Amino acid sequence: MTEIVVISGKGGTGKTSLTASFAHLAEDRIVCDLDVDAPDLHILLAPKHLRSEPFVSGHEAAIDPGRCTDCGQCAALCRFGAVREVDGEYVVDPVRCEGCKVCVACCPAGAVDFLDKTCGERHVSATRFCTMVHARLFPGEENSGRLVTLLRREARALAEEEGRSLILCDGSPGIGCPVISSLSGADLAVAVTEPTPSGAHDFARVAELCAHFRVPLALVVNKHDLNPEQTRAIEDAARAMGHVVAGRIPFHPDVTAAMLARKAVTETDSPLAPLIRDIWTTILETAGRAAKTAAAPVLTTLKGA
Known about the structure:
It contains ten helices and eleven strands. It is of the alpha/beta class. A hairpin with a 4-residue loop joins strand 6 (112-126) and strand 7 (131-137).
């Protein structure tokens, strides 16, 4: 089973629009949106939920007024200022509570409960292309890396259940925890970048991250015609690092038009559609070579045994 993750050094590079087109072009696939902090692939794929579950992670304190003696020790000990006195009663502000459990452990009356915290929700859905696994983390909530891991596990289980050979993931922007969780064990990362100095910097960062986790990388330069010189510089840097340049996409209003119509660009008659199709072919070939390279030591070991 092949797993391809589309990433970018920052948001707004066209990563999700390109992922939607890949989801349209791919065969025998499961699609997974790993951008759990700000998911938007669902806007283009219009999923219909088949199964939904809350994402429970961590705990938060809650004071039972029936057991509380109003001693105020919880408020005095809370270094986050999460316990406040309101109308003569002590209450916990869930936004400020870090779940450190000090108030729970130190309350002399045992009046503070330590409840499971619901941080978001995750879904398995049907789209016009294939089954989709996705989630939404509530504003301000944490543990996005753990949620990404759960989504990837769900996607892999579904792919095995449906007999699919490809998992296509829309990763998070940046190089933070959710991106790291999405890359580990992937067969290929596809970096979408723009031809700007910041784009070159962001690509260097994701390339370093992929090298650390030994994940092969393919580059796609979006809006390449806006700065041909910078495009060549980024592509040259990618080749110098041994990465594949999968292709270029010019700036074109058809991308916005497709987005407004809630379609992938490849579903339209845009002149960009054949370009993206060629890029996807290169990405599939690169992922195939990467999978063979990764499998080679295992086969050698088996033969040696």
